[in-house]
Design a protein that fits this description.
Blueprint: H1 2-38, E1 56-61, E2 64-68, E3 74-77, E4 103-105, H2 111-114, H3 117-124, E5 128-131, H4 132-140, E6 149-152, E7 157-161, E8 164-170, E9 176-180, E10 187-191, E11 196-201, E12 207-210, H5 220-227, E13 231-235, H6 244-255, E14 259-263, H7 275-281, E15 288-289, E16 297-299
Parallel strand pairs: 3-4, 4-5, 5-6, 12-13, 13-14, 14-15
Antiparallel strand pairs: 1-2, 1-16, 2-3, 7-8, 8-11, 9-10, 11-12
Helix pairs in contact: 5-6, 6-7
């Protein structure tokens, strides 16, 4: 009997000691965490980026889009608004109608792509990202201040917003900056590097390929294989870019996107390609053509 009492007492003592150790460790962990948060300069855990929302896409006309990311950030691409013939109201008369713009992307310097981007950058204090040799003259000519321009080139990637990655890719096109010299009142032409497209990867992994202005080139297959875009924004107007037949050839031969939105048509008499022609050329395709109207918003 005495023996059993001693064993029971010993077990109780060991259990109490173990519980004390657990409590001490827990207290130290909690206290250490609180101390780390309280100390300035201490490494803080990075909050996870919510990726449960949808992506909203507003077509502003021509190649211009406003993208709302799954976490509510606003990306604007190629905003030809105040002088764009198909720009929907209120964006044609009020640039602030876009809301707070968190990121500006411009594919090249032609007026129907650069458009109002410098004014939007200055209005929002937002950095304009674009081809290096386009951004440089924008800064040196005083179109935008140096702190609102970011230069990068094809295959270069940037992470301008939490959870958002943008990779510059090839576009088969030209780029020229038309600038009105305030001293003379005359228009001047300035070299503006090479046109680009963008792979825009959002917080939830959804990838948009904004092709910018481009003609056919074989490395469309490489870009599609490498980056695997979920949605392609594709020019179809012709003359300056692919026409409907060439755009359909690129989709069905090289890219095979899940969804494609035709753009860069219906705004210029020199770009005569139509949605109906593209849809006809895409008949039987494995890719879904998602037509939009200027001012329309779609969710993905």
């Amino acid at each position: 009997m005495i023996h059993l009492k001693r064993i029971k007492k010993t077990s109780q003592t060991l259990l109490s000691a173990a519980l004390g150790v657990v409590a001490a460790v827990s207290f130290a962990t909690v206290s250490g965490s609180a101390l780390a948060q309280a100390q300035p300069g201490a490494a803080q855990p990075q909050p996870s980026v919510a990726a449960t929302g949808k992506t909203e896409l507003l077509w502003l006309g021509q190649a211009g889009f406003r993208i709302k990311t799954p976490t509510g950030k606003v990306i604007v691409v190629d905003p030809w608004l105040t002088s764009g013939p198909k720009t929907p109201e209120p964006y044609k008369t009020d640039l602030s109608a876009l809301g707070k713009v968190d990121l500006l992307l411009v594919t090249h310097a032609h007026v129907d792509h650069l458009g109002d981007a410098p004014d939007i950058a200055k209005l929002n204090g937002t950095v304009l990202y674009g081809p290096a040799d386009m951004v440089t003259p924008l800064i040196t000519l005083g179109v935008i201040p140096a702190n609102l321009g970011h230069r990068f080139n094809k295959t270069g990637s940037v992470r301008p917003l939490p959870g958002v990655k943008v990779t510059a890719v090839q576009a088969e096109h030209s780029s020229l900056l038309l600038w009105k010299n305030p001293a003379t009142g005359k228009n001047e032409s300035h070299p503006a590097g090479e046109a680009m497209g963008y792979i825009i990867e959002l917080e939830n992994g959804f990838k948009i390929w904004h092709m910018g202005d481009t003609g056919l080139f074989g490395d469309m297959k490489f870009i599609a294989d490498r980056y695997k875009p979920d949605l392609v924004l594709m020019p179809i107007g012709g003359n300056f870019t692919m026409d409907p037949e060439d755009a359909a050839y690129a989709c069905n031969t090289w890219i095979h996107p899940k969804k494609v939105i035709p753009m860069h048509y219906n705004s210029n008499p020199m770009t005569a390609g139509t949605l109906a022609e593209f849809q006809a050329a895409m008949r039987g395709s494995s890719s879904e053509v998602v037509p939009m109207k200027e001012g329309q918003t779609l969710s993905f």
